[in-house]
Each structure stands twice: as C-alpha cells, then as structure tokens.
Amino acid sequence: MTDTSVEPGFLAVWHTFRIPIIASLATLFLLGRFFTQQKRLKTPSSSSLPPSPRLEKPVSEKESIAIPSLDFKPTSQEKQKPSGPKRILGNRQFKGIDKQQQNDQLAKPSFIKPIIFFATLTISTQKRAQWLVEELRAAAQAKSKGSDKDYGLLPPELHDLSEVDFDDYFVSAPKSPPNSLHTRYVYCFLIPTYNIDTIIDTFLSHLDEIHNDFRIDTAPLSGLAGYSVFGFGDKEDWPTEEEGFCSQAKDLDRWMAKLTGKKRAFPLGLGDTKSDAEASLKEWATGLTEVLGEIAETGGLGEGVPGSGNSLESDEEESEDEEDEQRPKKSKKPQAVVDLEDINFGGSNKKARASPLPVDFTTQSSQSSNNQSTLKEMVPSTSPTYAALTKQGYTIVGSHSGVKICRWTKSALRGRGSCYKFSFYGIKSHLCMETTPSLSCSNKCVFCWRHGTNPVGTTWRWKVDPPEMIFKGVKEGHYKKIKMLKGVPGVRAERFAEAMRIRHCALSLVGEPIFYPHINEFVGMLHDEQISSFLVCNAQHPDQLATLNRVTQLYVSIDASNRESLRKIDRPLHRDFWERFQRCLDILREKRNEQRTVFRLTLVKGFNVEDEVKGYADLVEKGLPCFVEVKGVTYCGTSSSAGAGLTMKNVPFYEEVVAFVTSLNDELQKRGLKYGIGAEHAHSCCILLASERFNVDGKWHTRIDYDRFFELLHKEKTEGISFRPEDYMRETEEWALWGNGGFDPTDQRVRKKGKNRDRVVTEE
Ligand SMILES: Cc1cc2nc3c(=O)[nH]c(=O)nc-3n(C[C@H](O)[C@H](O)[C@H](O)COP(=O)(O)O)c2cc1C
Ligand code: SF4
C-alpha cells in the first residue's frame, strides 16, 4: 500500500518538477567542469605550450657537466626535481630576480682582465687588435700606478680566433685563477665581415650550437663580467647595414648577448676600413676602457637594461616593436590625477588647504624670498606624486624639476630614426635632453601622456630651487639615463659617445616650464653651454611669456580654436583661460621678429578637428607664428583621458592629419596669409606649415643653424646687436620636404606590428 501510494506521488512530483531538476543538475555539472578547467589552466604543468624538446631529451649522467659557479643551497622543491639532463650553467639563478640583478647583487670590486679575440684574413684587423692590446695595457698600467687597491684593470690577453679551441672559451666562462679569486673577464672582439666562407662563419655557428645545445644553459657565459664587439667592413661595396656592412659583427654581438645573458658592457662599434675605422676604433676603445674601469671598481655593469640594468622610458616606448629586449613591467593601472591642492603634506595643513597661499607665480619671487623656509616642496620625495613620477621613469631633481629620456633618444642611439624635430629643425634625438623646471601645470589636458600624475595648480606657492642646482641635476640625470642604455641591443658606439654631450634641450616634458620663477636664468645656462632651447608653454601665463628672454624656438600649444573646445580639451584651472590664451597669442605675434615662434596643434578627432579649420586660421592670423606644427594626438590610455571619453578612435590617421593641414593651408591662402606646407614626418603623424619668410628662392629653410644661433646670441650679449629668426635658418633636407615622408634615409626604419600600425604615435 505504502509503495503504491508513494510511487504515483513521486511520479507526480517528478513530472511536475523534472525540467527545473534536470536544468539544475546540468548547471551544476557545467559549473563543476568549468571550475576544474580553470584550475587546470592555472597549473603551469598543464600549459598549452609544448615543453621544450631540449629539456625533454634525456642524457646519460656521464654526458652532464654541472658548474654552478655560485654557492647556492637548493630549495626543497628543487631537491625533489626529477633527475633530468644536467646542464652546463653559467650561474645559478635566485628566485624572482634576473641574472643581471643576481650578478650585480654579488658584484664586488674585482680585477678585470680583458681578453681580446680577433679574426683576420688580410691582416688589418690583427694590426688593430695589437693596437688595442697596447691601449689597454697602458690603461692598466696607468690605473695601477701607486695603487694598492684590491681591484683594478689587468693587462689584456690577445687571441686569434683561428687558433683557439672554441670549447676553451665559449662553453663556459673562464674561472678566476686560484691565487686571484677576484679576477673576472671581459671578452672584447674585433672582427671583420666576409661574405665568403671564413673562420668567422665557423665561429658563429659554434656560438649558435652552444646556445642551442640542450645540455648547456642558454647563457653559459653569464659568468663573464661583460663583453663588447667592434666590427670592420667596407662601405664602398657594402654601403649600408641592410646590404651587409659589418653584418658578422652584428651577428656576433647578438650571439654574445644571448650567451652572456645580455652582458653587453659597451655598445657595438662599427668602422669602415676605407674611411673612419681608426677614428671609430679609438672612440670605442676610449669608452670601453672607461667601462672596464667602472666594472673593476663596482664589480657590475651598473643600472640599465639587462646588459646594464633596466631603463624606464617614455610611455610610448611600449608601442614600439622591440624584438630582442626585455621591457620593464609597468603598472597597468592608470594613476589617478594627483592634484597638489589635494595632497596633505603632513602636519596640520588644513588651514593651508582650505585657503592656499594666494601667491600668483608672477609675483612669487619677491614674496617667497622672505619665507622660503616655511614654504612646502612641490614634489616632496615622500609624496605619492614623487613615487608615481619616478615609477614612470622621471628623475626628479630638487623639489620641482624633472628629466626623462624620450623614446626617440633611444631610437636614435640605435640608428632607427630621430623624432620629427630632426626632419623639421635638424635636432638629432640622441643629442636632446627633455626636461622641465616645473612639474606643476595649470591645465589637465585630456591627452596628457603623463598619466595624470603631475601636480597641478594655478599659482606657484612652493619652495623655489636655485637654477644652478636644477641645471646640474638635470644634466646628471640625463647622462645617467643615457649610460643606462649602453647595453641596449643595437645601440651604436659612435652615437653613444655623441650622446654624452647634450646639444639641445626640449623644455616640454611635464608641467609648465615658465611656471618656474627663474626660467630666464635657467635658459641662460643652457645657452652658455651651447645647448639650444625649445620651450613649449600652454598659453596660460601671458605675464611670464612676455618677460621670457630669447629661446631658440618658442612654442605655444594651441589645443583648440574656440573657448568651449579649449575648455573641454585642456580642462584649464584658470577661470579666465580664454582671455589668457588670447593675450599669449598677442605676445607671440610681438615676438615673431625676434625669435622663431611656433603654434603646436594636437589633433584629437571628435574634439578639436571637425569644423575648426576656420577657427584655427583666425588664430594663425592673430598670432602670425613662424611655424604651425600639426600632429595627431598620442593615445595614452590613462584614467584622465578615459574619463574625458578619449579612446583610440580619437587618434587621427595620417591621411586625416594630411586632409586637415591641406584645408588649413587653403584657408590661409584664401586670406592672403603667406604660408605653405614645409615638411613632414609621416612616421609620427606630424606636418609643418611654415611662413614664407622661411622660403628662400623656392626652397624651404625650416632647419636651424645652431652654430650661427650661438654666434648671434653672443654678439647680442656683447655688442647689443639683435637678430631675427631668418638669420639662423638652414635649408630643409630633401627627404623631409612635403611629399617625401620625412624619414632620414641613413637610419633604419622599424615598422610597428599590429592593427594600429598606421597610428604610430609621437613624443611629448
Ligand atoms: C672577399 C671579401 C668579402 C667581404 N665582404 C664584406 C661584407 O660582406 N661586408 C662588409 O662590410 N665588408 C666586407 N669585406 C670587407 C672586409 O671586411 C674589410 O676589408 C676588413 O677590413 C678586412 O679585414 P682583415 O684585413 O682583417 O681581413 C669583404 C672583403 C673581402 C675581400
Ligand atoms: S625633441 Fe622631444 S621627442 Fe625629440 S628627441 Fe627631444 S625630447 Fe625627444
């Protein structure tokens, strides 16, 4: 009875609820599978990548040689590792740090012994190698004179690659002799290039084999203190690197980077045997000797990219195609805008925050001189702004200045092209320092690539650092950053040497340079050292602009053609921003016969391009600048830009920039204003409109004769003779003219991969 009564009841329940029950069970089942799958994906052993066949292939115990050169206790996890093939190891690696860091942590002052290897067929390289031996021997002698230090440079050894057994030197790094445990080795190579079969091919194949031998660590030479290569070739028959000039030296440099774990001590040097070989070798040897001394003293290669540490550079660097390099990881989280008004500098600052010192920076110097000690620092080293800016690669100098290496400097050091300022004005990027004496700005532009971390404010109410201190600090910071790039693949020795003398300064980094009360003194110091000055201001500080002394080229940013658009795009802090902007244009007009004046337009699709051509033409008519630089915006993906609704869609394509410039040019012609399209740099989406004042006999002269500028400046200072922008102009290079693209043919173009390749972005 019970059974029969239960069964129909159960069936009835089943029929009523079977669909939800089945659905629930199916959901539970799918959820279960999903979680198991996720867990498996997170387990490294189940990576979808096939394991390296080199690591999988077993070898007998006899075949294996293990030379862990560091005393290192294995972790319990390592002890349990299945016995696989043992490998020849240059160094044991600590967890969480790369080899370079590991070596540097262990680095102590040492005795450095250079080992010079050369190859030759027609003897010229052998002779040059013998010369190098003498140079290094002399350096070793000079350094050891009267010194009883426990580090130093030892006399070099010389080896002909055709006579050495490669296994003796290139399977593992030589060990220190038992009587001098602090001795370490640096390999120096001098090799010619031959497109016929020579010992060099055998040698390079040997390096290839070592690198790819599964029994040997991929970087078995990481025990070396460093290496450097110099190549000889013939430019008459192999005029460019693409055509094979010094190609084997380049290959050797790459192999050694791999085998040593990127321990390039000094950049690759190249010399044309029929012209500059001796001079280039000399320059390279000087740099190398200096570095050898540094390694001996510090025991390491210093900071920089692997090979010389990590270099932090402009944000846009990430968009560049880099094939052989480790890039420092950057925080993906966009930083929030840090407004100085919002920062409490500790202590009871409430009153100050509620009513900031109402000191307009234009009147600042007189007021601040009385109470410097009570004023706060703009960017104290303990502040979040300081942390954020240094994380982005800025070197903060004093309490309100900064310096940073731009991506073009690195590109130029590698022979991959300079920024548009080379095409337009002749500035080689590796000779250019990018800096600002004021990290604070009075705008919060939507496209600012500074990650919104720069301080903002309308008034200068901070402690003021003296210009001498800033000048010294920014130069030191710049040179230090350049030195950090010496191990970057592709950096050329001759460019590296040139970069150790700053020739140009772009005062345009972050913030507003004319915000700094001693900007005139600072610019004077640049000029005294024959460093040209390009100063960019945001057209918000007319009084300061009016009293600004002569600079080599003076810019104002023109980010919109009308009040509403400017408010939206620049988000100015001043309520009378439009009036300030207009006054700045008037001042620029007055200055146009004394110095080169430039309008810089940054096009942001959807913000300041559409229907604004006439508005921009009005502004040009008002300010009559010598030049109008037009460039497509750089997308930086920060919170401030995202918050303003900026996406990749707002970045114009080059054709769109071209269309805009053409219409603006037409509009200027219609109004009888004498302008024309002077030059272009398609690579960074940038075009230059120039006043006909810079067109001589039908030829554009947008470049600058820097030597002439300094001559004239000197005359002005000493004899009171003023000069005009036309007095220091130079003819524009053919390849930079409108229609020719603007890429220096002597540099090697590297195209960016990926879908946004046409939206190659630019600096600043
Ligand atoms: C047959 C031959 C092939 C060469 N191939 C190249 C080459 O591909 N690329 C290059 O830059 N130089 C090339 N050169 C130039 C040599 O690298 C250059 O003359 C070098 O200084 C020779 O050094 P050595 O006298 O030590 O052998 C070649 C020279 C010869 C004779
Ligand atoms: S001008 Fe600007 S982008 Fe060009 S090299 Fe100098 S700092 Fe870099």
Characteristic key phrases:
10-stranded mixed beta sheet; disordered N terminus; 764 residues; Rossmann fold; binds iron/sulfur cluster; 6-stranded parallel beta sheet; binds flavin mononucleotide; globular; disordered C terminus; 2 domains; 24 helices; TIM Barrel; 20 strands; 13% strand; alpha/beta
Shape: globular
**Residue share in helix:** 25-40%
The count of strands amounts to: 20
Spatial arrangement of strands, main beta sheet:
7-8-9-10-11-12-13-14-16-15
- Rg measurement, Å: 31 Å
Biggest sheet features:
10 strands, mixed
| Secondary-structure-derived class | alpha/beta
**What's the CATH superfamily of the largest domain, by name?**
Aldolase class I
What is the CATH first-level class name of the largest domain?
Answer: Alpha Beta
Relative strand content: 5-15%
Distance between the termini: 89 Å
Q: What's the CATH topology label of the largest domain?
A: TIM Barrel
Total domains: 2
Heterogens: flavin mononucleotide, iron/sulfur cluster
Task: List unreliable stretches of 5+ residues.
Answer: 1-6, 38-87, 89-102, 305-370, 752-764
Describe the structure.
By secondary structure, this protein is an alpha/beta fold. The protein folds into two domains: 99-298, Flavodoxin domain (Rossmann fold, 3-Layer(aba) Sandwich), CATH 3.40.50.360; 360-759, Alpha-Beta Barrel (TIM Barrel). Helices cover 37% and strands 13% of the residues. Helix 8 links the parallel strand 5 and strand 6. Helix 5 runs parallel beside helix 9 and helix 15 (467-484) packs across helix 17 (519-528). The longest helix has 41 residues, at 2-42. It starts with a helix and ends in a 34-residue tail after the last strand. Bound molecules: flavin mononucleotide and iron/sulfur cluster (SF4).
